Amino acid sequence: MPQTPADQLTDARRAAAARLIPLQPLLTELGSVFTSAGHRLALVGGPVRDALLGRRSPDLDFTTDARPDETIRLLRQWGDSHWDIGKVFGTIGAKKGEHVVEVTTYRADVYREDSRKPEVAFGDTLEADLLRRDFTVNAMALELPSLTFVDPYGGLADLAARVLRTPGAPEVSFGDDPLRMMRAARFAAQLGFTVDPAAVAAMKDMADRISIVSAERIRVELEKLLLAPDPRPGLELLVSTGLAERVLPELPALKLEIDEHHRHKDVYEHSLIVLEQAIALEDGPDGPVPGPDLVLRLAAILHDIGKPATRRFEAGGGVSFHHHEMEGAKLTTRRMRALRFDKETTQQVSRLVQLHLRFHGYGDGAWTDSAVRRYVTDAGPLLDRLHKLTRSDCTTRNKRKAARLASAYDDLELRIAQLREAEELDAVRPDLDGNQIMEILGIPAGRDVGRAWKFLKELRLDRGQIGYDEAREELIAWWAQENAADQPGDQAADQPGVRVGDQRDGGDPDGLRPAPSGGETTETA
After folding, report:
1. Which residues of 183-196 are buried (b: 16+ CB within 10 A; e: fewer)?
2. Where is this region: Disordered (predicted)?
3. What is the pLDDT of residues 439-467, one digit of tens each?
4. Structure confidence at residue 258 as a pLDDT band (50, 70, 90)
5. Residue 148 near residue 44 (C-beta atoms within 8 A)
């Protein structure tokens, strides 16, 4: 006989209680500390929700009617240590043994129309505190020490239905804290829940309100969304509600473009699939790109954002996006700085966007060892991520074309492995160091040493390891040519002949790819 909804909810409560059994001594003890002092204490929010979902929660969040100073006094009495860095918001932290807890005074704060920070106001009842929380599934509590389940807004039923609904009117909830609209998208990605239609409508109406929230808080929510098991539903919600136009406008802008592979109606859809395929290629905890990997996922969703600015309609109905990888790298840097990403992450993602087309053209077999060395050198520590991003960027329905691209990249990785065995490929350095350069040329430390080192580095990339003697001869010849070129009337610089760094390997000045720069040169509309 099938279970009724009431039976399902009863079973969920029992399962949650069983999962919390290991914490019961802690919950009972801490609850007794507060109730003995005449206060209420409840486990609240994520830990309760996750227990009902059968998940482990990394946090232990509590709420109380005690004011912050009283909470400090009680936690000092209970724990090994405590801290009050969040006191202005009513939050006090403490640690006892291996357990870390945070206790927050009942809150009822709101945002003013023109403020980026909430006006903190403390409340008096648990029910009012739960009402101000973002969603009903996070508005459930376990009163301590009695372990009484408190669910005034139907969070358990919504959890069973896998729906995100606000405890009160969504307009009021999102008005109190506009970041909750971003959280709706994040929870859709993390939990696989749908968002209540009334909440979606409010998000569309109030999307502009997100502008009062600091870039740092928006970035944190976006990171959590992208690191979720399935970011797609969350990103689609941001785009459909108009929030993405305020926080990541480059993403919805892709909907205007034509997908170069003719599989999707727009580059937006292509980018979402690239993200999904990149996630599928992430490694286990001991692999070179252990998932979830924020850098790879950001690069996947942003890799084509340079297309709107570079789109050109060609004669005959074709569409080109020449150098969109370069434009995309600049846009990526600009957007990530605006969202206050750290410098290293910004540089890594932008570099991957810039490099994501380097592979195209390899399949014709024209790459020299020099081109392979440069590919590895330019990618540097991002090489494993670049492998995965490049493979993910193939979304064609043409099975023969997909197989050809995969085979070509297999071949490239094999050549990289072979070169690694033959030479120190991951840290390509000239055959001569700075001291040897100064000794051979008889020059002091300075700009000329740097120029000579750069010449030898290019020589190393072109020809591999050539040894001290040959490198010395090449250096002396280069130095003589440089000095001759500085003499008035000397025509040496105009003499024909290929020098290091000239166009080779198919016409690319860096020797990186034989295909024309920009990859997909012409497309049929």
Report:
1. bbbbbbbbbebbbb
2. 483-525
3. 888 889 989 888 888 888 888 777 777 78
4. low
5. no
Mean pLDDT of 163-186: 95
pLDDT reading at 7 higher than 90: no
Three-state helix/strand/coil letters over 66-100: CCHHHHHHHHHHHCCEEEEEEHHHCEEEEEECCEE
Would you give the DSSP letter of residue 432?
S
- The one-letter code for the residue type at 81 is S
pLDDT of residue 475: 86
- Enumerate the β-bridge partners of residue 283: 290
Helix, strand, or coil (residue 103): strand
pLDDT at 390: 94
393-409 residue pLDDT tens: 988 888 888 888 888 88
Closest CA to 175 of 188, 162, 166: 166
Cβ atoms of 41 and 103 closer than 8 Å: yes
Neighbours of 496 (CB within 10 A): 4
Length of the chain in terms of residues written: 525
Amino acid identity, position 199: A
- Beta strands (DSSP E) in 254-389 are 312-313, 318-320
Contact indicator for 176, 110 with CB cutoff of 8 Å = yes
Rg (CA), the chain: 30
Q: Give the separation between CA 325 and CA 335, rounded to whole angstroms.
A: 15
335 touches 284 (CB < 8 A): no
